[in-house]
Amino acid sequence: MHHLFRERPATTEGTAVDTRPTKIMYVAEATAHGGRAGYVTSHDGRLELKVAMPPELGGDGDGTNPEQLFAAGFSACFHNALILVGNRAGYDLTGSTVAAKVGIGPNRHRGYGLAVALSVSLPVLDAEVAAGLVDAAHEVCPYSNATRGNIDVSILLG
Description:
The chain is of the alpha+beta class. The chain has 3 helices and 6 strands. Strands 1-2-3 form a 3-stranded antiparallel sheet, with no helix packed on it. Belongs to the OsmC/Ohr family.
């Protein structure tokens, strides 16, 4: 376990479900060099990307940006959770996809906030079964658990 993380038993306070991990199984490490006008690297050398402000935020767009990276991570993680709950329920989700859109904009507190829209495609399942699997995946996915109550996450099943 990484020294910055401490293990703790899962507890609930009030009516909110405590979704913090009770055991850290993996730690990803990345470093930003130059903020939104530089590059990011991972400690294992697998990731080295140029980052740039998108034109919509006044940049040249000559690189990826944190919102794209967050969208990639959320969509991959949610899709994995969906496949997991689908397999547990006896469904083969081959051909399914999850796309994520991450929006950024000013909030009411002189800072910035995010909003996420997930678009889930489960072409081989009827709508009721698909909706149940999406709801179950939303409870399992670590990104869903991390963002719940903090940012707006909408899920479109199509």
